[in-house]
Give the backbone structure.
Amino acid sequence: MTELTEYRQEVRAWLEQNCPESMRSPYRSEAEVCWGGRDFKFQSKDQETWLRRMAEQGWTAPTWPKEYGGAGLGRVEAKLLKAELARLHARPPLVSFGISMLGPALLKFGSEALRQQHLPPITRGEIRWAQGYSEPNAGSDLASLAARCEDQGDHYLLNGSKIWTSYGDHADWMFCLVRTDFEAKKHEGISFVMFDMASPGVTTRPIRLISGKSPFTETLFENVRVEKNQVIGEVNQGWTVAKYLLTHEREMIASTGLSSAGTVPVGKTAAQSLATEDGRLRDTILRADIARFEMNERALELTIERARDEVKAGVSLGATSSMFKYYGTELNKRRQELLMSIYGHDALSWEGQASHEGRLARAWLRSKGNSIEGGTSEIQLNIVAKRILGLPG
Amino acid sequence: MALVLNDEQLMLQDAARHFLAERAPVKHLRELRDSDDPDGFSRTLWSEFVEMGWTGILVPEAYGGLDYGYTGIGLILEECGRTLTPSPLMSTAMVAVAALELAGSAEQRSVILPEVVGGRHLLALACDEGPLHAPEPAQCKAEMREGHFVLSGSKKAVVDGHIAQSFIVSSRTESGASLFLVPAGASGVTVQRYSVLDTHVAATIEFNQVELRPDQLLGPPHQAQGLLDRILDVARIGAAAEMLGIAREAFEQTVDYLKQRKQFGVPIGSFQALQHRAALLFGELELCQSLVLKALHSLDEDSDDLAELASLTKAKLGETAQLATAEAIQMHGGIGMTDDFDIGFYIKRYRILESLYGDRNFHLDRFARLRGY
Ligand SMILES: Cc1cc2nc3c(=O)[nH]c(=O)nc-3n(C[C@H](O)[C@H](O)[C@H](O)COP(=O)(O)OP(=O)(O)OC[C@H]3O[C@@H](n4cnc5c(N)ncnc54)[C@H](O)[C@@H]3O)c2cc1C
């Protein structure tokens, strides 16, 4: 106990010293996120310093082993670090698919050489990754993917295309699901490969979203060379890796539904900007909607906490990442709907400083994708029905 | 406290589940109903509760109890929800013991608690006066006369009021609210029993010029509203724990049925419309489980957010138990509507618990107020 308290003191003191003042507030828009990568332009000196200092501590990936750039923290320590960061309202120094998706898969299935090669640059924010899963004809039915990866003796050649590649035009490397056996059943001929997006034959075309931004691309491959040592797990066994990575992706997406450090709770936001009577919102229908939302928000928070405690106590988690993904994203959509109701006309601006370039409207629109990306809500319910409840069909 | 059960709690849960499945399955409730049992519960079963220590689970060891905490009794109530077992466990061993522990004088505790542990003294909380739950006493009044309080008024929906030896009664007194421990046999007390829709029995109680000594106050005079709210929060969390058992059992039986019942040549559980509704309910129940466990922990720890958690938990459990028990009937089709089949009983018990100690509308409102909007 005292050891932990001491640890907490240390963490607190370090953060107080090292977290630049301007990094102590939540992002106002996605443009302020630090993604890292070869061509990333830091928006400020502070942003760069914050990333560098945190990476040196191993705190961009606190639970990863030290030899791969993490800090080797246990769960309790990591939770403390998170709490201390929240206390300062500190922004994440780095947001990265490398950390939230690829890393866990590499740690579980990757060879030592692959971990050494890829993990440390991820923790330092040097390489930005893209996820090459979906294809025009393989969305929910991901395993029907068709990108062809042919054995050329000492290397592979990749042809085909991916779609909805988030930040495909900013990414340095891609982890990608490809077909390596064209005769096998659909789940059994898939491999999990990685390659440099700067390789000849890779092109990306931005796709614009309803939120007005182009955060994803169509990605085309024409005779792209893939090295043989860049396969995670066994050749043709990529589906196992892919599914494992998806559970991490889903857990990450799930937390978008929860108010994160520093965001003002919806009810409080409403109380600050709308008319009240005896301390209650005058719009009683909106008030009830908000209360129901906050009830479910708290219930999900506690359930995520319980799931973590259960893992620690050795109870297996199974398909619950699907449940969290479903609830987290449906909740976030509710949150955005409520914020639109609370701000009314003011939420409709699309440009200009006052609205932070239409932050509310764009966030509302963007949230509609939460229940599609990483596997749709319907697919998550299918998974719960079949894997957890054991329903037939 | 980590949000998991420890080994001892898991054992208690397991023991309770086995005991109740064997000794008090839904058939037990049917038998009480079909024999028109005036008490609506079995005294033989109650004495077995006593033997297992359940009546003293919250009582300090000094009074012969187990001092095992709220999480323990919550687990037992959840199991009672699964079997729809009627008993005064919640009213006496949880709510009344909590009230005595929170505010009872040394005298009150030493006289009553050992009798509660022995199963000989049952208590009932008499709070509501109108059709909807309201924690503030309105028409029950106790006036000071020659060193005595004189209590008049009536209380409704008193759970186990028909079998209790004493009542914990909320009443207005000159400058606020007070709680009294009133013997059921006191002069001027009339108890009218009535059966409710799930075969349980409750009572309406009239107090006509009932004379009470100052030492029959429970807690401080005139300033007991906070105490009453705190006692009610215990009851709310207890009701939520029971609703969790009800909802889980109805859900699990329904999922089994989805696998067995065939239509169009396939199990009905292969239809996606039903799969998704079942999957959603699974998720809702997981949320509920976390809330109930957290709320029980917050009782054990007497934490600051207890009131908020109690309201949030009662509201969410009401919503989910309603959904689970109604979906259970729908997904069973015609057989779900029959009295011969148990599944339709769950919604009845749910409805009682929804109304007790504040329904979900009451608690969403309270939750919002506690959160400042
Ligand atoms: C913002 C955003 C970012 C994304 N980023 C990436 C990325 O970086 N990399 C990547 O690879 N992919 C990415 N995706 C793609 C995403 O994973 C797919 O869009 C998703 O898996 C759904 O596939 P689809 O679009 O083909 O829809 P479809 O599969 O065609 O689904 C259409 C509708 O049919 C429903 N449906 C389909 N099958 C079933 C079924 N069996 N039962 C019931 N309903 C069903 C779906 O739920 C949906 O409502 C992103 C998507 C979005 C929106």
Q: What stands out?
A: Residues 138 and 320 of chain A are 24 Å apart (CA to CA). Strands of chain A lie at 129-132, 148-151, 155-166, 173-179, 190-196, 202-207, 216-227, 231-232, 276-277, 280-281. The domain at 241-388 of chain A is CATH 1.20.140.10 (Butyryl-CoA Dehydrogenase, subunit A; domain 3).
